[in-house]
Every structure is written in C-alpha cells, then in structure tokens.
Amino acid sequence: MFSVSRSLERRPLDLRLVPSALSIWAVTLVGLYWSWVPTAVAALSALCLGALVWVVARGRRWTSGALAVLAVTAIAATGMSFRMHQIDRHPLRMVSEHGERATVTAVLGDSPTPMEGSSYGARRAQDRAFVPAEVQEAEVSGSRFRSGGDVVLLVPTQSWRGLIPGQQVTATGSLAPPRPGDTTLAVIRVYEPPAKVIDAPAWQRTAEDLREGLRRSSASVLTPAAAGLLPGLVVGDTSGLPPEVERDFATAGLAHLVAVSGANLAIVCGAVLLLLHAVGAGPVLSAIGGGAALVGFVVLAGPEPSVLRAAVMGTVTLLALVLGRERSALPALAGSVIALLLLMPQLAGTAGFALSVAATAGLVLLAPVWAGALHARGVPVGVAEALAVPAAAHLVTAPLVAAISGEVSAVAVVANLLAGPVIAPATVFGVLATLAAPVSGWLSEAFVWLSAPELLWVIAVAEHAAAMPGAAIGWPSGTGGGLLLAVVALGLLIALRHRGIRLTAVAVVLVLGLVLIPTRVLYPQWPAHGWSVVACDVGQGDGLVLATGNPGEAVVVDTGPDPALSAECLRRLGIRRVPLLVLTHLHADHVSGLRAVLAHSGVGAVAMGALREPAWAMGDIARDTRSRGVPIIELSAGQQARWPSLALEVLGPRGPLARSRSADDANDASIVLMASTPAGRVLLTGDIELSGQAQLLASGADLRADVLKIPHHGSRYTAPQFLQAVRPRLALISVGAGNTYGHPSPLILGALARTGTTVIRTDQEGDIAVLPGPQGPRTLTRGDPVRAER
User: Fold this and answer.
1) pTM here?
2) What is the C-alpha separation between 500 and 45, in angstroms, rounded?
3) Are strands 632-634 and 606-608 parallel, antiparallel or unpaired?
4) Own/partner pairs for 493-500, CB < 8 Å, 24+ apart?
5) CB 718 within 8 Å of CB 744
6) Where are the beta strands (DSSP E) in 273-336?
7) Rg of the chain on CA atoms, in Å
8) 751 sits in which H/E element
C-alpha cells in the first residue's frame, strides 16, 4: 500500500511527462476518427509552432518544456498520419464498403467472443462471435496479396468455438467497413467453419490448457456462480459467469473485478514480491521474480491489447501502492500512456484504456492525499487507505462509466470497500489452482476450495448492493453526460476543501441515509400495491408478469432479450414462484432471459406452442429446463388455467398456423392469451402480425379487452380491424428505447390515438404496472427505461 506519511509531505507533483501524454492521446484520437489528413496538419502545425517558440521565446524557463511537448506531438502525429494513410489505402479497407467477398488467411488474436445482447428475429446475437485477427494473406475479386493488417471476423459461435489465440485459419466472407475510431482494416462476416486450421504455438496451447484446468477445477468444487467468478478474477474469463451475477456486479460497481486490469497484475506480482521479501531475497532477485510473474500472467491471460495494457498499468499500480512513491508513479503513468499509444494507437478510443488510466491516476493523485488527511484526523492507517482507494477510483472513473452506461452506481464505494479485502486471497488461490491443475487435480481443487468463502462473500456483496433502493442512478449517457458528471465531480472536489461545505455535505449525507433510504425501504413506490399485470422493461422485447393472487407468485409471459432484466423485474416485484412460464414464440427477444428466470424463481412448468423453431432456441430451452428439472408443456387454443385472481384462456394460434413447422411463421404462430384479472381483461398477443390477426378475427373469438399488449412491439403490421375488434382502453407497448426497427410505428400510434386509447410504453416509462381503478384499469410506472442496444 501507499505510505500515508509520505502523502503528508505534500511534495510538488512531477508533471513533466503529462502534457506529452495528453498531446499524443489527442493526436491519436484525431487520426483514428478523422484519418490521416488532419493528423498531418497537426504534425505540421506542431513543427511550425515549435519553430515560432524557438525564435520568439528562446531562453525562457518554459521554452524547453514546450519545445519537448511540441516535438513529441509532431513525431506522434507524423507516425499516426503515415499509419492511417496506409490503412485507408489498404485494399481490404478500400473495398470494405462495397460488401465484396474476401478469402483471408489470418492468425487469431483472441478466442471467439460471443456478441453481447440479442438480435431481433430468428437468430440471436450469441450465435455470432467476433474474433480479432491479423491477416497474413488475402484474396479479393481474384486478386491475391499479402497483408499485415488487422481485421475482425464475425463468425458462427458453434463452429468456431474452441479456437485459441495464435491459431492460423482460412476464412471466406463478405467485407464490411469497421466502426469509426479503429485501426481495423475491415469486418469480415463469415458463415462457414474455419478452414486450414493450424495449431497455435506451444506457449499459447499451454496457456489455454492452464485456463481450461482452472475452469474444470472450479466447476467441480464451486457453485455455478462462484465457478464462473473465479476465472474472471484470475484472467478475466467471464464465459461461465451467470448473467444475473454479471448484472449485479455492474450495478454494484464491481464489474472491474472480472476484467483484466492492472489490479490483477498488482495482486499477482505483489504476492510474489512479498514472498521473495519474506525469504530474504535482495532487490535484484525480487525484480527478476516480479518480472517473471508479470510475463507469466501476460502469457496466461493472453497477449491481446487489453492484457498488455494491464501489464503496464499493473506496473504503475505497484509503484503507487507498494512503493508509496506518487512522485515517480505519475511520470511512470504518463510514460506508459505514451508507450502504449505509440505501439497500439487503437487503444486511444477504447473505454477500457481510458478507465485504466483514470483509475490509476486516481490511485496515484487522490488516494494518498485522502488517506493522509483521514489519518491526520485520527483514522487508523489501514482504515484510511481502505476508504480512500475505492473512493478515489470511483470518483475519477464515474464520468466515463456514466458516459458508457447512462447510470452512476451509488453503492460502488461501499461495495468495493466490503469486497476489496477478499479479492487478493481469492485471486492468489485461483492462480495457484491454475498452476497446479496440470500437475495434480486434487491440489488444484484444494486451492479452489480455499477460494470459495471469498468468492461467495463477493457474490453476496454484489447481490445485496445491487438490490439496494437507488443502487444505480440514471444519468445522461454519451460524451455530454460524461462531461457533465466530470464538472460536477470537479466542483465537488473543490467545494469539499472548505470546512463549512464539508460539514454541510456530511449532514446532507446523514439525512439521506437516516431518512430517505429507510423511507424507500419501508414505504417503496415500487412494486405498486395491488398490481394485476406488470410489463417489465426488458429493452427491445417482451416480459410480462401476471399476479395470481397468491403472495410471491405470478405467471410470466416471455422473458425478454437480456439474460438478467426479466429476473431483476421479478426480484423487484418480490416474485419467488412462477407456476407457469409461457413463451409465446422462440425468438431471442422473447426467450433469451429464460435461464436467469429459471435460476431466480421456482418455475413449475414452461409452456409453448407446437412450433419449436428456431432450432437453436429450442435446444437451449430444452437444456436449461432439463438442468432445472422443469417440464415443458404444449399449449393450444381453447385451453384454460385458473388461480385465485387470474384466469388464462389460450386463443391462438389457430388454423394452419397452429400446425406450422416453419420458422418463417414464428411471429404469427405466437401464443395469444386472454387474461382475466382484477384490472379487467388483458389480451397478450406475442408478435402476431397480419396473418395471425386474421386467423383470430376469423375464429369468432371474443377479442374485447380492457388492456391490449400491442403485437410485435408496435410494428406497422397490425390491422385496423384487429384494433377495432379489441377496442382497448389501455395499450401497452413493450419496446426498447432507441431501437433501430422504428418501433412503435407512427401508423399504429395514430390509429390508437383516433380511438381514444391511452398508450403507455416501456421505452418512455420503464416498468409499467396495471392496477384496478374505479373507472377501469390505471397504471403506475417505475421509470428509468432500458436502452434497446444495451
């Protein structure tokens, strides 16, 4: 840890390299987002300004420093200009916008990573994975050429699963332009398995065997959540982390624990240094041992840019926290930024790089001062450091997190304070288990067993912190929101330097803690008392909950696209038992949350229609229900079910749609339910479109309802005749904010407005509860809508 006594010396900071680091970062961003011409202009401008300074201000004290910054800027901008010019003129980049097909031979830079979120329609995003790769040879339109540039392969997850970094493959696919702010030549959409696969180097295979050994030992000893967490703490592998745990970590401000960062390296290298110090090793041997641990960790985690970035940041963290030399740590941080950006300019526009730099700067600049101030006021050294470190890291990274996620964790400091003490031992035991796995399975499992209490503690901290009222506060996302929070944080830092303001702030916090939080807990506005139906805000998808009249019990219709959001909604509503979970059809935006709901609640049965397409979804559903011992039942028109305050009748699908076996009919073959509730009749329509609506109208069924769940998120494929037959007072539209499908359609909104129907949408209101009222159904909303592309 850093030294409190040294922080009290208040020596001036060594800022000499900071301007150079910032200028290089700026010109690198210019090159990434505006290409080579503006970067060349920046290089020329720096040279001209340097010449002007040399002529006009030669001999002044600040001249040498200014000239050094301008010289470094000119060099970096010139190099970036040449690099971006080569990328822009590369054959793959030049034809990427035309969608031509290309065959490439490339070396993988990482293992295939399933894409986040779920896509709309018949395929889910997790069926596709992205793989960074370096092209060795390419063929486009019959022209073959050798290449040394980077590409991103979008590949089928199933057939590419198991590939590791360092393997060489041949792949054919269609080209697409990369996203802005990237040095990637092109994105290649691949739909076939890899061809001509060549083994990775021996050291890469050894690293993968070690990682697999850790996963195997964890799965045999730990609970599923803990087994997914341990590889995340050790090497950033979150592939086995349950979605509900991952969401809890994000809400509680603990997501950084499962990302490869400087903290991982600081723990591993710190443990090695402490061990060497304990056995009396001298400085040279300790340096060799720490360096070996550093290299070994990079090999174990994989040498992709994020790990290399963490290696440099881990070195800086060790300087700040172990040596307590903040004066030397700041130049080291700035030098690390310079070196990384010159070697890997693509890092300049990534959130991970910015978060690493910000967090390390907070530990170097703020944490020692705050800990020293607390210690000067009588706080013990250990407690002062434990409070200052998470507070400083959270404060400086909060604007970036808000810009990315649109929310600020209000519990992050406390959660990190509680979880922090056990992270180091859990990580060290995980590393030892990894190293022992190839030698002895039982020894590896013993180390994993020793990490179990720490892992369970961290999971419990994340779960309870995320469940706190107001754990995550909504904030404007994007650059504007991040800058706004940065200004607020800076103003807070300046204001708190005055004693009177500090005392006032403490009083305000105490009032909030002693009055508002208990009020929110004892008298929460959500869930609404006496609700009949809740449309959970699950983004671009459906997730509806119907109260049965039994405490803590509800019927669920669809589980949304996100593996965690439906389970979170059930938790907020206090639902512990789900006697029936209905999947209206098997598209990703309706079924991808099933696993999390099964894990959260006691589900009696999962119901679906006769159509079991798409096949990938049916396979996942069968696997997840079988693992939980939950039966699958088939629903058909005419079936009914009853509970104390809920009656369900299946109205569709009917006719040929009820017998269809084609995935193309999935929307129109949605299960349609009429629910009789204390709030009135509620018609739940899945994603039925014109054909499915016509079948219902032709069946002669009574479609009149007080509340209509608008089909297909408000798409334009809803017939006016269908709306006239239902004649709802209230229309619910479950839709994601900012979705790219144009939902809900202005045509449907206009048709509903002309009939006097009240329309309420999850993209505007968040969770929506429907309650009985004296003059028909009424609503209460929770707010804080979820973005569609989360």
Assistant:
1) 0.66
2) 47
3) parallel
4) 493/395
5) no
6) none
7) 29
8) helix 746-754
